[in-house]
Write a structure and sequence with these properties.
This protein is of the alpha+beta class. About 15% of the residues lie in helices and about 20% in strands. This is triacylglycerol lipase.
Length: about 90
């Protein structure tokens, strides 16, 4: 599920079939710059998993998301790393 968060088109390209138990239900954020991912629900509709696309450095991923990847990472993952320090840090 985590790897599939980086694939824009479900069941195509690098998409990995997760097998029985959960199904791909919906995606979000792929039409604009920002938070992106897919939603999976178990077969009994009791458990929902949201797979979020994480941070990608500009030279590893497409440029349309990398500007906001760092901001999203700082907002979701920590409060200290986004407060300045090294040249690669950006205030959240």
């Amino acid at each position: 599920m985590a790897a599939n968060a980086y694939v824009s088109a479900p069941r195509k390209g690098d998409w990995i079939d997760i097998g029985d138990g959960f199904n791909y239900t919906e995606d979000f954020g792929w039409e604009d710059d920002g938070l992106r991912g897919h939603i999976f629900v178990d077969t009994e509709n009791k458990t929902v998993v949201i797979g979020l696309k994480g941070t990608s450095l500009w030279f590893f991923d497409a440029p349309e998301t990398t500007d906001n990847d760092r901001l999203n990472d700082n907002l979701f993952g920590s409060c200290c790393c986004g407060q300045g320090g090294q040249y690669s840090w950006k205030r959240a």
